[in-house]
Amino acid sequence: MNQNIARLLVTCADQAGIVQAVSGFLYHHGANIISLDQHTTEAYGGKYFMRVEFHVEYLADKKQTLLDTFAKNVADKYQMSWRLSCSFDVKKMGILVSKEDHALLELLWRYSRGALPCQITKVVSNHEDLRADVESFGIPFVHIPVGKDNKDEVCDKIDEVMQGNDLLVLARYMQILTPSFVDKWESKVINIHHSFLPAFVGANPYKQAFDKGVKLIGATAHYVTSELDEGPIIEQDVERVSHAFDVAELRELGRDIEREVLSRAVRWYLEDRIILDGNKTVVFD
Amino acid sequence: MNQNIARLLVTCADQAGIVQAVSGFLYHHGANIISLDQHTTEAYGGKYFMRVEFHVEYLADKKQTLLDTFAKNVADKYQMSWRLSCSFDVKKMGILVSKEDHALLELLWRYSRGALPCQITKVVSNHEDLRADVESFGIPFVHIPVGKDNKDEVCDKIDEVMQGNDLLVLARYMQILTPSFVDKWESKVINIHHSFLPAFVGANPYKQAFDKGVKLIGATAHYVTSELDEGPIIEQDVERVSHAFDVAELRELGRDIEREVLSRAVRWYLEDRIILDGNKTVVFD
Amino acid sequence: MNQNIARLLVTCADQAGIVQAVSGFLYHHGANIISLDQHTTEAYGGKYFMRVEFHVEYLADKKQTLLDTFAKNVADKYQMSWRLSCSFDVKKMGILVSKEDHALLELLWRYSRGALPCQITKVVSNHEDLRADVESFGIPFVHIPVGKDNKDEVCDKIDEVMQGNDLLVLARYMQILTPSFVDKWESKVINIHHSFLPAFVGANPYKQAFDKGVKLIGATAHYVTSELDEGPIIEQDVERVSHAFDVAELRELGRDIEREVLSRAVRWYLEDRIILDGNKTVVFD
Amino acid sequence: MNQNIARLLVTCADQAGIVQAVSGFLYHHGANIISLDQHTTEAYGGKYFMRVEFHVEYLADKKQTLLDTFAKNVADKYQMSWRLSCSFDVKKMGILVSKEDHALLELLWRYSRGALPCQITKVVSNHEDLRADVESFGIPFVHIPVGKDNKDEVCDKIDEVMQGNDLLVLARYMQILTPSFVDKWESKVINIHHSFLPAFVGANPYKQAFDKGVKLIGATAHYVTSELDEGPIIEQDVERVSHAFDVAELRELGRDIEREVLSRAVRWYLEDRIILDGNKTVVFD
Known about the structure:
CATH architecture of the largest domain in chain A: 3-Layer(aba) Sandwich
Number of helices of chain A: 8
Structural class of chain A: alpha/beta
Oligomer: homotetramer
């Protein structure tokens, strides 16, 4: 991975001159723009979103200058909320899982072949089942059991264990997180839901899909908010099914969709491709 | 179209010997099985569904004998509900539409090139807009205006105009049909809904999809029942979208999905590929 | 359609400062960038491609100034090949067709509902079959019969009839165009080929696909060059098939793919989304 | 896995009475038909293919009787080539691999969760790289190095090591097998090819796809014959790509397609869903 790649993510009110201001700033600092994506929510007067990926020699040395100068010369003027992400600052990621291994193993396999630009620091589970799988990748496994009345305690423990991570991924973690935990980790927790949301919220979506007789089943990767299954959607996909599928077969096929959808969402997060727009996402893929 | 093709559709309790009984019956009457599909809802003790397509010389002459003998020798024994459909009995189809032409024109175009094995008898609309389009295909167009308080009257009129049809297709007919009409035409009315049901029931699904920020939009062809948007699903499909699509663009892309999904559902109906299983469908495609 | 939208397409050697130069130029002329896409063929030292869509008040009045100033102040400096396309200059499009109507009708239907931003000026065919269909859309139909030895004459006639068009679309025109015609209309003729090129070049691709037993069939929209079926690919798609499809069914399903693929390619051309890169295309969709 | 499930696969000339004969035979032996699929290559006088899956109590005890009686009473009469496969006879599968792990690991993972009904007996590789991965699944790993001039010797060794297997899977085994080996293992070796065959036969298909500028890339699972890349196709799939993908990215995306396509083909083989029809396959999925 080239150490001199940076990404600038910008949100502000739509107005003339933004591209010129940002590209001028980058040119002035010797940067070469690799890609530039933008999105406006309305033809006039909407919100503006931008992602610029650029290359600049000696990025590590220049980072602080870039941050300071951009804030002063560009961001303040256009009242931007923004962040700069540098390839040498490898993101840290923790994973939570219960007993099902498919989403976890897909992430670990992609990670081990270098396809997820991050460091996976820890896997937490409320069961011991997947310890050997996780440890075989050289990643610490932490068992935090969940009882009837210890949700707060469990979430405090997870919060403590996961300190320092940029992202938490719920790879089929079948426990509800407390509102205070979710608030603390706002916009930093991605979940994979085993349905095409907003259809089939709640428990056992494959059973719901079977009962309804849908002809496609899906999965949704979304940010976790305090409203269950209602956080901003990052990615979704579906596969065709027929009357011949029983619930177990829907679930088995669904696992393949979950693996792919979650992998894409996590990769996009790590590549700084996602910007929040209220309860929706802008994904520059 | 070969005039000597028939299709037998069977529903009964699952039990041993059904295939043997049906294929023996057909063999005895000189028929050649072209395809045979079956489905059981449980490993044991469930419901059984079968579709057999067969060829037999002089079908028109033999039809009554086949009906009588099958009823007596096979259907009664296995307590089947069943029907026999012959290729020379061309199905009659009526279409209802409002102002949007895309779903209607797709059906008319496929019909005109022989890809829908039926006779389209009439198109009814609550607006005059599409008269010329319909009449250019040589199909009668009937304008039945809808007012504030004449739903019953309108539905009586439609019922009268559509007498003799085997199937009614709502190709974006934006009026609600009365329960008594729906009961009369039970399992004979197919609607195209512009969302991936059960997500986004009700009005303006593309606006709902936009507000929710989904990454796929879809369409659903379903039988019409008295519960709005809740009838048995026949076919569904989706296309990928992004944050960059506004509501108008979602709607435009959605139209393409609607055209395809409705066409497939109608063709399957005409080819006797759909059997009802409570609030679900078995589709032997 | 907003009359004040323009698109600038640029190709040059990759080098620092291009975005800054172009966006600075646009800002200076009061333009608001709607979207900006770029592509480089190599990390360093490759080719650079850019598409910028922008809005500017009084575009018609400013067009000549924009052209002159951009040439002098930007394009020369960076040795760009480039073009500016304005929304008020509606593109003119001619269609060539033989007997099959599916690709033609799809284009005419989309055109009639405003989904193809162009003026369709003429449809030329070597058969009379589709005259009524074309004329019902109010578009002139020209019959240019093809004989055994009059290819040159036919192409001269087509060239004459089609003068003034920006784009010619071969919507299943089953005649070979002469090299001199193709040269004259270089990068201005789009063909729909009924296979997933480069598989199944040449005659009867559905028969070839059937014989080979492929599990997907496809269609390809490409620019026409003097090498048959070898021009730059613009768009492709496929559908799943099985052993149960005979050649006629492959052809029927294939028609649906052809309709979609050609429609997309034509729309992208009209929206100035395609730039040639040797024998390949850059498509900013 | 239910031990009393059997599958009967039949190929013969199309003729009246086959379904009746087979279903009558099964009924007489107390079997319950779970599914029945058939295919004929022509409306009349073609080849006929059938797959029947059935349940019968005490299958192990009855197997020899079923084989003998079916041969005498049905197969001889209709001149069928056929085979009976019983769920208690677990198929044995060997895998060959070189250095790339993606196709292998996908198979091993699915195997470990019970989604591939077989016993994986051995993995053979011409490199040592994947030994630890394979052995962690408890499967013997055999290293058979390949030199310049020892192809015959290598294939003899593989043949010896793999004795007793019903299926060999080339999960990115990058060596050519000798014609005599291929003959010996006819219809028992499945390969995954990293292109949408018949496009891009031969070396480095992703480079070929890149150079050609295709908009979709694919993968093909096929039987291995002595003609390289020309064996009967079992399964294919594609994904959409754009000008923005370089060769490495095409390869990375291609790996995901290869994993899925090969998994499906292997599962279908193990479930007796594939029948050869000359150089094509009938797949009853």
